[in-house]
Design goal:
The complex is a heterodimer of chains A (262) and B (325).
Chain A: E1 2-9, H1 13-21, H2 24-36, E2 41-45, H3 53-67, E3 72-75, H4 79-88, E4 94-99, H5 102-115, E5 118-122, H6 133-149, E6 157-160, H7 172-183, E7 192-196, H8 207-220, E8 225-228, H9 233-245, H10 255-261
Parallel strand pairs in A: 1-2, 1-8, 2-3, 3-4, 4-5, 5-6, 6-7, 7-8
Helix pairs in contact in A: 1-2, 2-3, 3-4, 4-5, 6-7, 8-9, 9-10
Chain B: E1 16-19, E2 33-36, E3 55-61, H1 73-76, H2 83-92, E4 98-102, H3 115-128, E5 133-136, H4 141-154, E6 161-165, H5 171-180, E7 183-187, H6 192-205, E8 213-216, H7 226-241, E9 252-254, H8 255-259, H9 263-266, H10 278-295, E10 300-303, H11 306-319
Parallel strand pairs in B: 3-4, 3-10, 4-5, 5-6, 6-7, 7-8, 9-10
Antiparallel strand pairs in B: 1-2
Helix pairs in contact in B: 2-3, 3-4, 4-5, 10-11
The chains are: A alpha/beta (262), B alpha/beta (325).
Chain lengths: 262, 325
């Protein structure tokens, strides 16, 4: 499973302040720390309160690339900000994200095709998040088919079945895992899958434990990537171990370090 | 309608290691040899690049190899006492791509030769032939750890392939290779996990050494568990092509040593009339074992019999003919 480092996000106070004050040091530090601990993409999100999302995203892309060569995952609901960021990315990036809504898919898949970007696709539409696996998979199919029409191949897509907090929507957990299994049957090559890992533990008292248990359970269902805290050593060790148990990496005594080094 | 043939796509490739150094590069070799670099499974030229052909070494000892079968005397009998002349004969008459010098005489149970004597032997061989050298110790860890720095220093600039590092004994040889810029053989006992771990341990001592490792996965002769060694190599190659950098090194194996221990190679025809003439049988056993390992992705083969070498080189030439489409 690929870890997309979640820490450069304006939801965190230090990052919000750094964006406001254009303090590159904070961003450099988080980019390096996440990469060193095994992140393979870096998520960039200017935060919901940014007054100038386009300019802030451009700045984030530029300063992050000063500190790390990892591909970037541009995370915004404002597609102008994502498009401005894509133009500055030195390597093909990932767009985070698009729901199964016609107008948004049109905008995002056209942009993805132009910039050779991967896309995180949300299994939801105007009506919200489906309750069961069947309807999540139906939305995934809609996303895969629409992307194909724009020339974006299925393996450029990361379908997010959308995880909800286990304390408020406990019945969704199993549905999400079933969705992950079924998504792999949609096409050949199949789309990839991703989750925003920390959603599963929002508002609970054992956040890290719940995150890492869910991560390994989801990996067993075929999960390819997670937006997660790459600096959570226990999580990274659990993911590295699950990769060994799933025969994705060849075992050696230093397998955790090897996973972190990529 | 044209048929579209499915081809496997690999994410990564095997690293390249250069053996030897010419005068311009600080050594005295007439040429260098590059091994590894393949970006597809063995000889699937249609799926990737196989840029460097496998190479074949003949084995030279620094003392008379009393235990070798008598059939070797007609080829090497006149030079068994002189490693330099022996090496020269292997290259000039028998066409060895490179020479493996085994410093057997250092063994305290045999002659117990000093590190300085061993270094002098290596220098004599370097003076006698232009091909790159592989140099390995006597097999006694304690003694070998004294040999490595002296031999490595005496051959400074020659970019040797020095062996062998093992999981429980890799620091002295790795330090010697780091200090005098040689390549190292990392040997694991038919065990993919130890193979990978040893490469990591060596790379932790110096990141530059990560690109100077040649894996010895340890092999068995035909009939003695060849399928175990083969499957370990297969896993290593698949790992390398899927991006596992700690398994993406070229590989070397000691075919001659293993084959010429077997009864199939050695028993006189009088004892087993149904098996056919002994020398012919030994040559075939050595060549067959070697060609099986070529199919598993072996990059450097160490042989003993010159006729087996000729057969294997012919097989390599056939395998290197492109089958791309």
């Amino acid at each position: 499973m690929i870890i997309i480092g979640e820490r450069i996000n304006g939801m965190f106070k230090d990052v919000a302040k750094a964006i406001r004050e254009r303090d590159a040091g904070v961003i450099h530090e988080w980019a390096r720390r996440q990469e060193k601990n095994g992140a393979r993409y870096l998520d960039l999100n200017v935060g919901p309160s940014s007054a100038e999302p386009v300019e802030a995203m451009k700045w984030l892309v530029e300063v992050t690339q000063e500190a790390s060569n990892l591909p970037l995952c541009l995370d915004s609901t404002k597609y102008d900000a994502i498009e401005a960021g894509l133009k500055l990315c030195k390597r093909p990036a990932m767009i985070n994200s698009v729901p199964a809504e016609a107008a948004k898919m049109e905008r995002v898949f056209a942009m993805a095709a132009e910039h050779n970007a991967e896309v995180i696709c949300l299994a939801m539409n105007e009506e919200g998040i489906p309750k069961d696996a069947e309807n999540r998979v139906a939305l995934a199919m809609e996303l895969v088919a629409t992307a194909d029409a724009f020339g974006v191949a299925p393996d450029m897509l990361f379908i997010d079945p959308l995880v909800l907090p286990c304390n408020v929507a406990q019945d969704h957990g199993k549905e999400v895992m079933e969705t992950m299994r079924q998504i792999k049957l949609l096409s050949d090559p199949p789309p990839k899958t991703v989750v925003g890992l920390s959603n599963v533990s929002q508002g609970t008292k054992n956040r890290e434990l719940i995150n890492r248990i869910f991560a390994v359970m989801a990996m067993a269902c075929g999960l390819d990537a997670a937006i997660a805290d790459a600096c959570d050593d226990e999580l990274m060790a659990a993911v590295a171990t699950a990769r060994i148990l799933l025969n994705m990496d060849i075992y050696c005594d230093s397998y955790i370090d090897v996973f972190k080094q990529g | 309608m044209a048929v579209e043939i499915q081809k496997e796509k690999y994410r990564s490739k095997v690293g390249e290691v250069v053996l030897g150094a010419t005068r311009e590069q600080g050594g005295t070799r007439s040429h260098t040899i590059t091994v590894g670099g393949e970006s597809a499974l063995p000889y699937l030229h249609f799926e990737g690049e196989i840029p460097n052909r496998p190479v074949v070494a003949l084995e030279v000892w620094d003392m008379v190899p009393e235990e070798w079968n008598d059939c070797f005397k007609q080829y090497y009998g006149d030079v068994f006492n002189d490693p330099a002349a022996w090496a020269k004969k292997c290259v000039d008459e028998y066409g060895a791509d490179l020479i493996l010098v085994r410093l057997k005489s250092a063994d305290p149970d045999l002659k117990g030769s000093s590190p300085e004597n061993c270094a002098a032997t290596v220098q004599k061989v370097l003076g006698a032939v232009g091909v790159p050298l592989v140099v390995i110790g006597c097999g006694n860890n304690e003694k070998d750890n004294l040999l490595y720095p002296v031999v490595a220093e005496a051959a400074t600039g020659e970019n040797l392939l020095l062996g062998v590092a093992e999981q429980q004994n890799y620091k002295a040889i790795t330090s010697a290779c780091m200090a005098y810029k040689h390549n190292v053989i990392a040997q694991s006992p038919i065990d993919i996990n130890i193979c990978k771990q040893l490469n990591i341990l060596i790379a932790e001592m110096s990141t530059a050494m990560a690109n100077r490792i040649v894996i010895d996965p340890t092999i068995a002769a035909l009939g003695y568990g060849i399928e175990y060694s083969y499957s370990i190599m297969e896993r290593a190659r698949n790992g390398a092509l899927q991006g596992d950098k700690m398994l993406a090194m070229p590989m070397i194996c000691n075919v001659g040593q293993e084959v010429w221990k077997t009864k199939e190679a050695n028993l006189p025809v009088a004892e087993e009339p149904g098996w056919g003439e002994q020398e012919e049988r030994g040559v075939m056993w050595e060549a067959m074992t070697a060609t099986a390992y070529l199919q598993a992705g072996m990059n450097v083969l160490i042989l003993r019999h010159p006729r087996a070498l000729a057969l294997v080189k012919q097989n390599i030439a056939d395998l290197m003919k492109s089958n791309s489409y």
